[in-house]
Specification:
Immunoglobulin-like, rod-shaped, alpha+beta, 9 strands, 139 residues, 16% helix
């Protein structure tokens, strides 16, 4: 009887240990982020996750309004602090930032973001209706 109880206790402990190990391995959902470059310069986008802490650096080739460049990325679902660097020909390493490009991009669903010139100002229609838009134009 004593051996049977010991085996049962060991079995329960083994199941508890395995259950706690597997509890942290819940997969993070992945979302599709489509970025369209219409800025006239090559760009780099830095995404810094606010909940999970993921960091992404995305690079897109030069695109214009007449011939935009579109690229699809797969990122973890999160709200990302976004900084866009416009890669100038005289500074191809660091690029310049636009003060209007620091924004939070909510990627908890598939999102399409369009990057325009730094001097272009877009209206904020749709932001005050309770849900962030799925198509975002920055800056």
């Amino acid at each position: 009887m004593d051996k049977k109880i010991n085996k049962t206790i060991l079995l329960l402990l083994a199941v508890l240990v395995l259950a706690t190990i597997g509890a942290d391995s819940v997969p993070t959902p992945l979302m599709r982020l489509v970025v369209v470059n219409k800025s006239g310069l090559p760009i780099e986008i830095r995404l810094t996750g606010q909940e999970l802490g993921n960091i992404y650096y995305l690079r897109l080739a030069k695109g214009s309004r007449a011939a935009p460049v579109e690229q699809t990325f797969t990122v973890a679902a999160d709200a990302y602090a976004t900084t866009i660097y416009f890669i100038e020909p005289w500074d191809p390493v660091y690029g310049t930032t636009c003060s209007a490009t620091a924004t939070v991009l909510d990627v908890n669903a598939n999102v399409r973001a369009t990057v325009l010139e730094c001097t272009h100002v877009t209206p904020r229609r749709g932001w005050g209706r309770g849900e962030p838009p799925r198509i975002v134009k920055v800056p």
